[in-house]
Amino acid sequence: MSDPTDTAAAAAKAPHGIADVARSAGVSSRTLRHYDAIGLLPATAIGEGGVRRYDDRALVRLQRILLLRGLGLGLADVGRVLDGEQDDVTALTAHVSWLERERDRLARQLAAVRTTITRIEEGRDMHTTDTFDGFDQTRFRQEVEDRWGPAAEGPGR
After folding, report:
1. Per residue in 124-138, pLDDT tens?
2. What's the rounded Cα separation, in Å, for the pair 11 and 44?
3. What predicted TM-score, i.e. pTM, was given to this entire model?
4. Is the dihedral of CA 67, 73, 74, 76 positive or negative?
5. I need a surface site. Which of 39, 79, 85, 119 has the fewest CB within 10 A?
């Protein structure tokens, strides 16, 4: 049987309880227990009463999990990505770059939609150059080709 002082020492090094982590991350404690069960986010320590506790490194891993899930990755893929990367700072820096590009794309879309509203309200003609700024549909190309076949090349086709 383990020494209770070892459990207390480990829990002291993991200051974040499951309820606080779940609430702050916007996930349920059930989700965190599931992530623990599948090895994606093991609890750093188990405190009194069996309460899972997390250290700062676990918080970083959870942030990365949530970022990758936000990109649409399944849990198995998230695990593979995280297991394949050892340096959190490098991985997070790359993610910051992606988020900044995404923010800029969304800002262009927002401006395009606002311009469209203004043109409609004022009865002005639309312009293709600014109407679709920030709308990148190429990510759907494979789905379209799978469903309807390859696109014909050339203008207006």
Report:
1. 998 888 788 878 767
2. 8
3. 0.69
4. negative
5. 39
